Each structure stands twice: as structure tokens, then as C-alpha cells.
């Protein structure tokens, strides 16, 4: 049975993943990511929100197709 579709990363975790790569050698990543999130450019945040919305729609379609083919999702 194929794997159940994974939920997309929300806007903050998408931002965090990008910043984590940029700060890979920095020992104070969490604090710097927090400050960057608090001061995020509204246009950049809107871009991340739009990407998230597209991925949520794709996820919903994928889960509907999965459920139609395989029934209810697997238990954890």
C-alpha cells in the first residue's frame, strides 16, 4: 500500500527550514530565526503563504484520491 500523503509545512516551518540552511554553521540558529520571523518582509511572507495554500490544495486532492482508492487512513 502506498504511503499516505504528508501534510505540507506551514508558513513558519517553511521559513524556518530555509533560514536553518542559511545559518547552518551558526550556533545561535533558534534565536536568529526567531528575530528573522518577527521582522519578516510582508511580501515574502505573502509569497510563503501562497505557496502553502497551493500545497494544501494539492494535499487535500491527494488525500481524497488516496481515501477513494484505499479507504480510511492508516492508524498511527
Describe the structure.
The structure is a single chain. The chain is mainly α and 76 residues long. The chain has one domain. The chain is built from three helices and no strands. The chain has helices at residues 11-22, 29-38, 42-70. The longest helix has 29 residues, at 42-70. The chain is elongated and about 45 Å long. The model has no long low-confidence stretch (mean pLDDT 92).
Structure annotation, total helices: 3
Radius of gyration: 16 Å
The unreliable regions are: none
Q: SSE order in H/E notation?
A: HHH
Kindly state the percentage of residues in helix.
55-70%
Write down the domain tally: 1
The computed structural class is mainly alpha
Distance between the termini: 15 Å
Portion in strands: under 5%
**Apparent shape:** elongated
Number of strands: 0
Average pLDDT confidence is 92
Largest sheet: none
Summary?
The protein has one domain. 67% of the residues lie in helices and 0% in strands. It contains three helices and no strands.
